[in-house]
Design goal:
Blueprint: H1 14-19, H2 23-35, E1 39-41, H3 43-52, E2 60-62, E3 64-67, H4 70-83, E4 88-91, H5 93-97, H6 106-114, E5 118-121, H7 134-152, E6 158-160, H8 168-176, E7 181-187, E8 199-201, H9 210-223
Parallel strand pairs: 1-2, 3-4, 4-5, 6-7, 7-8
Helix pairs in contact: 2-4, 2-9, 7-8
Length: 225
């Protein structure tokens, strides 16, 4: 689970520092994955395997990018293309539509899709969904899906909970609106066909080197979590 792919600004607070992986570190991490024989896939590929048994490559791993920051397009995409790694980008649809500073444009989002990246939804406005009315949740969930699909012309079947917050109603709405899977902030790598709406991930912190990433992948693989 990645967020910012850039050097944090001098006045960055602890949250920005934690969420910022520098381009050089990201390159080193992708080089490690390639040398260790990992084969990145998209969330949609994982979902297809969990629900339909579609074959995956050896040592599959999913790379996800939350929020739709412009630096993902500028700094992550070139490296992913270099290693021929697909990934899933979860965008905040209204932020893109409003051309909010620091976020990608629709042209850049479409370019990601053309390059083979999956575009998933991170809601319209990145609100905490937990405890919200059904109408509010449905607007954020269905509205973002419709906006992305109308803009780039590819189906949106993967979702990411803002700040990892959701409830049973959220999952119900995801099912009814055509999403097949959703990612959480629950730390881990174990995934189940019975629980595609609570997929686990490893948060890649700004302080993590390639060796740190290797450690956590090994840790969760061996622990079965």
């Amino acid at each position: 689970m990645y967020h910012y792919l850039s050097v944090p600004p001098p006045d960055a607070d602890i949250y920005r520092l934690d969420l910022s992986v520098t381009p050089d570190t990201f390159e080193a991490q992708m080089k490690y994955l390639a040398s260790a024989g990992y084969h990145p896939i998209r969330i949609s590929d994982l979902t297809d395997y969990l629900l339909n048994g579609t074959q995956l490559p050896s040592k599959p791993i999913v790379l996800t990018f939350d929020d739709g920051y412009r630096d993902n397009y500028e700094n992550a995409l070139p490296v992913l293309k270099k290693y021929k790694f697909p990934a899933t980008f979860f965008i905040i649809a209204q932020f893109i539509d409003d051309q909010k500073p620091g976020y990608m444009t629709w042209d850049q989002v479409e370019d990601l899709a053309i390059e083979g990246m999956e575009i998933g939804s991170h809601t319209l406005d990145h609100i905490d969904l937990r405890g919200k009315s059904r109408s509010v949740q449905a607007s954020e969930i269905a509205g973002s899906k419709a906006m992305i699909e109308s803009r780039i012309g590819t189906p949106v079947e993967s979702f990411c909970y803002p700040s990892g917050q959701y409830d049973a109603q959220t999952i119900s709405i995801l099912r009814s609106t055509g999403y097949l899977a959703a990612t959480t902030e629950i730390q881990g790598m174990y995934q189940s066909s019975n629980d595609t709406y609570q997929l686990r991930r490893i948060r890649v912190r700004g302080s993590y080197s390639a060796a740190d990433l290797a450690y956590w992948i090994k840790y969760f693989t061996q622990s079965g979590k």
